[in-house]
Specification:
Length: about 550
């Protein structure tokens, strides 16, 4: 028995941790306990040097003094304030009206708003609960299939995991030892692409099963003009003109990639907002409007979150602010928006602070437990075991990526993101770097993969969040008064499955097209170093005469 322990200490230690986690013990305490128990066992067997434990206080202090992790409470607080101040409700109502009678319009609105909330809140729970409370009753009222409705809400809420300023990406960058700003910029295009794939799926459902995703009835569409038109032409013209203005302002800029997109978007929305304000002032004093009600309402509702996106992501991408500073500005901006909407109350702020403190403490204790576990794991040469195991896989980089993603996908059935990030990622990062894999690309791949941990039945947290707000029993709809059936847990699970498949497809796309992420490095140099010629200019100097001593 002793010989087996000595020869297999690392795999037994890792297996013990997974066993305790599957039993339901809290991750932080499981990590710390397994680390300390195997440290004592290793000392007894002569495999672990006691001096390693002297580094434990320094490791804990390193967690407490990590400035990057300060972004987590800032972004959490920002998301909770925005969620409670009614921004999600205004967005869903306006965008839902914008799609109107289009088949699947409410589902498109949920995806669009989910992407916007992800880019402003970064908190999965806030996004899923907000959209579950606001849009689910509306979708059920107008006859949406319960599986489609619950699936699109849960999946759109998880976009907060991959679209910056995601808490997931902050932790991922910290564990891989990379810049949070680079991780944000690398994940920008994959996150938007994933939202687009969700919309493509809804479009396919509207074609194959039209009754599952009906459009709004005409009498439910508001924001009509005096001639009963919807004013969409006015909104389209404003959008095109604003987009052209932003592009013209940026087309001679030296920025590229996500920087160019964010800055162009900022200039476009500021131009649209200025036009809407002028329209409102003119209408107030003269009664004449050159924008429709729909165009003005959409602009006023869309600009605040889009401005907050620039305030946070734009300053990070451009390099003006660090992620922690961007989070602080985002939290301040959320408070200002809440005050402007006249919804900022002491009770709202207190609830947001309490929830932020709970989540931050949760993350911090898991991270401290992970430090204890990793210290012992490295002390018994666990990192060497992992590296030798993974580098010997056939297929090189591709074989490694396929195996790792399959492994993480299976673990995501049982473990949530934070457990995966603090336990598995530190073991995989050095191996990926040894194989020459870009760690930002690797981190984004794992981020998209771990997003499935929120959607996996039966332990997906997004499904739990939706279950907590979805009606279980039949109820009377508050608008129509009709008796409406509730949603079963099985319907929520079945609704999530197509979106889990879409997320797997997105993992494959990021692997096959690394340029989706690698744009974070900027424009590559087009100069061939083999053709570089260095010419040293000839300088005429008068000859030195050493026959005479120098004059003093």
């Amino acid at each position: 028995m002793e010989a087996i322990l000595i020869n297999n200490m690392a795999p037994i230690m890792f297996g013990s941790l997974v066993f305790f986690l599957l039993l339901g013990y809290p991750a932080a305490f499981s990590l710390g306990a397994v680390g300390l128990i195997f440290a004592l066992l290793g000392i007894e067997l002569g495999l672990f040097v006691p001096d390693f434990l002297q580094a434990l206080p320094e490791r804990v202090y390193g967690v407490m003094s990590n400035d990057t992790l300060l972004a987590i409470p800032f972004f959490t607080f920002m998301g909770l304030v925005l969620e409670r101040s009614g921004m999600a409700e205004d967005l869903l109502d306006t965008i839902g009206q914008l799609f109107g009678t289009v088949r699947g319009g409410l589902a498109y609105a949920v995806i669009f708003v989910g992407a916007l909330l992800a880019a402003t809140t970064g908190v999965v729970a806030a996004s899923v609960i907000s959209m579950g409370l606001i849009s689910l009753p509306i979708m059920m009222r107008y006859g949406y299939d319960r599986r489609v409705a619950s699936g699109v809400i849960a999946a759109s809420g998880t976009l907060a995991q991959i679209i910056p300023p995601s808490l997931v990406l902050i932790v991922m960058a910290d564990q891989l030892g990379k810049s949070v700003g680079d991780m944000y910029e690398g994940a920008f295009i994959p996150g938007i692409t994933l939202a687009g794939l969700y919309a493509v799926y809804i479009f396919m459902v509207t074609i194959a099963f039209p009754k599952a995703t009906p459009g709004l009835p005409p009498d439910a569409v508001g924001f009509r003009e005096a001639d009963n038109s919807r004013g969409l032409i006015s909104l389209g013209v404003l959008t095109v003109v604003s987009g052209v203005f932003g592009w013209l302002m940026m087309r001679h800029s030296e920025t590229h990639g996500a920087d160019f997109v964010v800055l162009t978007m900022f200039l476009a929305i500021m131009f649209a907002f200025a036009i809407a304000v002028v329209n409102w002032i003119v209408a107030r004093f003269t009664g004449f409007r050159f924008l429709s009600h729909m165009a003005q309402q959409t602009t006023f509702v869309m600009v605040p979150p889009l401005f907050l996106i620039f305030l946070v992501l734009g300053t990070i991408f451009v390099g003006i602010a660090t992620p922690t500073e961007g989070g602080a500005m985002g939290a301040s901006g959320a408070l200002i928006l809440g005050a402007l909407k006249r919804r900022l109350t002491w009770d709202l702020v207190r609830q947001a602070v309490e929830s932020t403190a709970k989540l931050s403490a949760f993350v911090l204790f898991i991270l401290i437990g992970a430090r204890v576990f990793s210290l012992t794991f490295y002390g018994v040469s666990g990192h060497i075991w992992v590296e030798s195991l993974l580098t010997s896989l056939p297929g090189g980089q591709i074989g490694f990526l396929i195996f790792v993603n399959a492994f993480v996908f299976v673990l995501a059935f049982f473990l949530d993101f934070f457990e995966l990030a603090f336990i598995v990622v530190p073991l995989l990062g050095p191996v990926a770097e040894h194989l020459g894999i870009d760690l930002i690309w690797f981190g984004v791949i794992l981020g998209v993969n771990m997003q499935t941990s929120f959607m996996h039945p039966p332990f997906g947290f997004a499904l739990f969040y939706l279950r907590s707000v979805a009606p279980r029993e039949p109820y009377n709809d508050r608008v129509t008064g009709k008796r409406t059936d509730g949603i079963t847990t099985g319907q929520i699970y079945w609704g999530a499955m197509p979106f889990v498949v879409i997320q797997v497809i997105m993992v494959l796309l990021v692997i096959l097209f690394p340029a989706m992420v690698m744009h974070y490095k900027g424009a590559a140099s087009t100069i061939d170093p083999n053709k570089v010629q260095i010419e040293i200019p000839q300088i005429d100097l008068s000859p030195l005469d050493f026959s005479e001593p120098p004059k003093r």
